[in-house]
Amino acid sequence: MGIAYYDSLPNKPLVEAILEIKWGQANEPDPAYEIIVGRLYEKVRAQYPVTEKLLPITQVPADMTIHVVRHRFRVTAGGWPLVQVGPGVLTLNDTEGYQWEDFRRRALELSPKLRESHPEPEALDITGIMLRYIDALEFDFEHHDVREFLREKLHIGVSVPETLFRDQPVFDRPTEAMLQLGFPIATPTGRVQLNISTGRKSDRPALVWNTVLVSAGEDARQGWSDFPAWLNSAHAILRHWFFALIEGELLQEFMRE
Fold first, then answer.
1. Integer Cα distance of 236 and 96 in angstroms
2. Helix/strand/coil (H, E, C) string of the chain?
3. Residues 163, 166, 170, 175: what is their CA dihedral angle, to the nearest 10 degrees?
4. How many Å apart are CA 153 and CA 113, to the nearest integer?
5. pLDDT tens track of the chain, all 257 residues?
6. What is the Cβ-side half-sphere exposure of residue 99, based on CA atoms within 13 angstroms?
7. Which of 31, 32, 78, 105 has the most C-beta neighbours closer than 10 Å?
8. Which residues contact residue 33 at a Cβ distance below 8 angstroms, ignoring those fewer than 6 apart?
9. Is residue 122 classed exposed, middle or buried when 0-12, 13-18 and 19+ CB atoms within 10 A define those classes?
């Protein structure tokens, strides 16, 4: 039996969905940045009218913050989704209200606006495209073994030799976790990553997992040449990874009203 997919989960663990587009190199200033910010806002203000300057980063010269967002455009004050822009970087972000079809529509509306905002669209050298989903669950690391949770709930086996603790004043229960795995992809060309770490959710200790698909360099240029296809393929892979990871008890928990 294959993995079951659902368009919506009533009790989903999503913290944030992020689409990130980068252009230029990390060590090269973006001379068109100031023009792009103004033009982009004019093109998106009907959907994202509320502007925010991100302090203190906007007090630093733009040439020193390449690929760091500096301005934010929101649908409403404090509301989501939102668009962020900085020298050589544009993002679309959503949180608990995320629905794929809405996110996809916004992404496909946003991408041509970036081209149109650049003073020389043919010189827009896309060097990175990323789709990321951040999920989290509150977790008591002091009283529960995160290795058991990973094995039983996320189907990931993590073990360390028992001899590490033998005759040592060390407790065999980790209170921190950090795991990163990356795998190459054929379509779209790039890599998919799974990152698991300790973190916080609603200001309480949590286990956080990121599923990320990244295309960089020439892979990003190819993806940008047919961005709708890249976006659809990236989402299909990450959707499969999410439901494969939570299959079983976690899926039932996330389906609970």
1. 20
2. CCCCCCCCCCCCCEEEEEEEEEECCCCCCCCCHHHHHHHHHHHHCCCCCEEEECCCHHHCCHHHCCCCCCEEEECCCCCCCEEEEECCEEEEEECCCCCHHHHHHHHHHHHHHHHHHCCCHHHCCEEEEEEEEEEEEECCCCCCCHHHHHHHHCCCCCCCCHHHCCCCCCCCCCCCCEEEEEEEECCCCEEEEEEEEEEEECCEEEEEEEEEEEEECHHHHHHHHCHHHHHHHHHHHHHHHHHHHHCCHHHHHHHCC
3. 40
4. 41
5. 689 999 999 999 999 999 999 999 888 888 889 999 999 999 999 999 999 989 888 888 888 888 999 999 999 999 999 999 999 999 999 998 999 999 999 999 999 999 999 998 888 999 999 999 999 999 999 889 999 999 999 999 999 999 999 999 999 999 999 999 999 999 999 999 999 999 999 999 999 999 999 999 999 999 999 999 999 999 999 999 999 999 999 999 999 98
6. 7
7. 32
8. 62, 86, 87, 88
9. exposed
Please give the structure tokens belonging to residue 155.
């189907």
Name residue, tokens 């649908």. Answer: 75
Place of tokens 């939102």: 82
